[in-house]
Each structure stands twice: as C-alpha cells, then as structure tokens.
Write a structure and sequence with these properties.
Its main location: membrane. It is found in: Membrane. Residues 31-185, 223-363 form the Sodium/calcium exchanger membrane region domain. Helices cover 76% and strands 1% of the residues. It is mostly helical. The protein has a two-stranded antiparallel ribbon. The longest helix is centred in the middle third of the chain and has 35 residues, at 217-251. The protein is globular. The N and C termini lie far apart (55 Å).
C-alpha cells in the first residue's frame, strides 16, 4: 500500500519537497541548488492544489473554499512572524508590505484572472453579488483599519500604531474575520454558492479528476495531511530561494519591497491555480471566494499574530501605507464594488482588475 501511495505524483512530490527543504534549509545555495529548490517548490504548489480540491470536494462548499485560504495564510503568518523576530529593524515594514501585496494579488490578480477565464469560457462570468459584495466590504474594512489608519493616527510618530491602537486593530480584525466565516458557513451559505449549475459532463469530468464521486473520509484525511505538508514546503522553499531572489532584485537595481511581492506571489501560487481551475469549470463564485477569502484571512490573521509577536519585537512596527499604496487600495475597492454589484462580469472587468494588478507590480519595481 505504501508503494502504491508513493507511486502517485501527488504524494511523491510533497515528500520529495520535504527532502529538498531539509537539505537546503539554512544553507547558501549555488545556482544548481536554487534551481532544484525552485523545481521542488513548483511541484509542491501543484500537489497542494490537487489535495485542496480533494478536501474541498469532500466537505463541499463554502467550507471547501476556506480550506486552502486559511491553510496558506496560517503558514504565511508563521513565516512573517519568524522573519520579523529574526530580522531586526530592517523588517519593520515586512508585515505591511506582505499583507498589502497579498491584498493586491488576491483582489486584483486572482480576482481579475478568475473573471477573465470565466468570461472566456461562457462570454459572461456569473457569480453571487450578495456574498461577493459582503466579502469585498469586509476586506475593505479590514484593510482600512489595519493599513490606512496608522498613517493618520497621532499617538506615535510615523505610520505606526500605539500599543492600545494595535490591540484594538488586532481584536477588530479577528472579530470581523470570525464573523464573516460564521456568516459564510452557517447563516447565509447560499450567498457564497455558485449560482450556475455546472453541466453534467463537466461534473463527471471533475468527479473523474478527483478519483470518483465524493472522496472517502480516509482519502480526504490523506489529502488534508499531504496538503499541510505541501504548504509547509511551499513557504519553506520560498524562504530558501528568497536570498537568490534578493540578490537578483539588488543586482537589477529594484527596491527591496519587490522581494516581498515575489515571495507573496510564490506563496499564493496554490490559491491562484485553484481559482483558475474552478473558473474553468464555470465555478466563478468559488474562485472569488478563494480570492477574497485569502485577502481577508491574510489581514484578519496576520494583524493579531503581529500584535502578539510585538511583545517580543524590539524594533518599530510600520503598518501605515504610503500615498501610492493607498491610491491603489482605494481604486481597487471602488472598481471591485462596481464589478460586484451586477453579479456578472465580462472580459472588460477582468482586464481592468488585471491592469490594476500590473500597475501594483510595476510601481513596486519602480516606485
């Protein structure tokens, strides 16, 4: 039985990634080592997407959309806190840059790509405006409380929260995220379900892809375990290759903030692939649940974790966004609201969000 499991690429790749991570962690790698680590990272991403879809198929929606978003975000938060504790003063803006990058990637990159794929598939991408609008409103509120207000408070000099303000932002973020999860999974589940019925042939294809009808509890537990392993490897290998990314960014003359964007792109790769695959199956609502849920979890879990870690952090904690970043956040919220209200989108809406994502990436490289 063990040999049969190891023969599956979805099991073999995460285990191979574990070996690569153990061999490369804490070491200065030559170019060949960086290539091997990057290849293992890609394999772990592909395996994570597969196992997340198996688990989601077992538990059903909207719980399935939470699996990958929360799993990735928890590990991402652990990585941020670890780097901040060991990074000293140079990591003062790490939490802000990472969270903002995650919001831009999810609310413009993944969001726009999902709409684009859905519109190419059926000319018009249809989704549930009530649930998507509620998710976008929660993301906008969390981002404003945690990333915009520190720029305008006066208790401490600079774009920083005082300890009491940070505690309030942490409690408010966690409470809002918990409230949203309760609404999404219990009281108003229908608002987050796909509004279109997928054709029978596509259902059969999806079932075949997952290895039958509904996965057994044993298969779902195995997938959950392999998903956890794969996600740990994704974040760990992203950290392993980050020195090579930093040196490449420095040699190209790019600002240090570009490193955070690249690493955030690597960490969010599983969610991106899962969202695109859902959109290809005409399940645009699931794609949007993944995008906005990931943005929400990134803020709602990161800020409380940073507030607790602040007990041990000696340096400053800069959370306030700059003027350019606030403009990008504001236009993202406005355009997102206009996209969500009709409950349907064309190629144009997808292209607009991808243009905003491109602007974010360009300005991160050339501020």
């Amino acid at each position: 039985m063990i040999r049969a499991l190891l023969s599956r690429w979805t099991v073999a790749l995460p285990l191979l990634a574990v070996v690569v991570l153990a061999c490369t962690w804490g070491r200065t790698l030559p170019w060949l080592g960086v290539v091997i680590a990057a290849s293992a990272l890609v394999g772990a991403v592909l395996a994570a997407v597969h196992h997340a879809e198996v688990v989601a198929h077992r538990v059903g929606e909207p719980f399935g959309s939470l699996v990958l978003a929360v799993a990735v975000t928890v590990i991402e938060v652990a990585l941020i806190v670890t780097l901040m504790i060991s990074g000293g003063e140079k990591s003062a803006t790490l939490a802000r840059d990472t969270v903002f990058a995650a919001v831009m990637i999810t609310c413009n990159g993944i969001f726009g790509l999902s709409l684009l794929v859905g519109a190419l598939r059926r000319r018009i991408a249809v989704f549930n405006a009530e649930g998507t609008g509620a998710a976008l409103a929660t993301v906008a509120t969390l981002a404003t409380l945690s990333l915009v207000l520190p720029t305008f408070t006066s208790s401490k000099p600079g774009p920083e929260f005082s300890p009491a303000q940070l505690a309030f932002a942490a409690v408010a973020s966690l409470a809002l995220y918990g409230l949203f999860v309760m609404v999404q999974t219990v009281r108003h589940r229908d608002d987050f379900m796909p509004v279109e019925v997928v054709r029978v042939a596509e259902d059969a294809a999806a079932a075949k892809e997952h290895g039958g009808d509904r996965p057994t509890p044993r298969a779902a537990l195995l997938a959950l375990a392999m998903l956890s392993i794969a996600l740990v490897c994704v974040v760990g290998l992203a950290k392993v290759v980050s020195p090579a990314i930093e040196s490449g960014v420095a040699s190209a003359g790019l600002p240090h903030a570009a490193v955070g964007v690249v690493i955030a792109l690597l960490v969010l790769a599983p969610e991106t692939l899962a969202a695109v695959r859902a959109a290809r199956r005409d399940q645009v609502q699931i794609s949007l649940n993944l995008a906005l849920g990931s943005a929400m979890a990134s803020i709602g879990l990161t800020i409380p974790a940073i507030a607790v870690a602040g007990i041990w952090l000696d340096g400053p904690l800069v959370l306030g966004l700059g003027a350019t970043q606030m403009v990008l956040l504001a236009i993202t919220v406005v355009v997102g609201a206009l996209t969500v209200v009709p409950g349907r989108a064309t190629l144009l809406q997808g292209g607009v969000h991808l243009a905003l994502f491109s602007a974010f990436v360009f300005l991160a490289a050339s501020p």
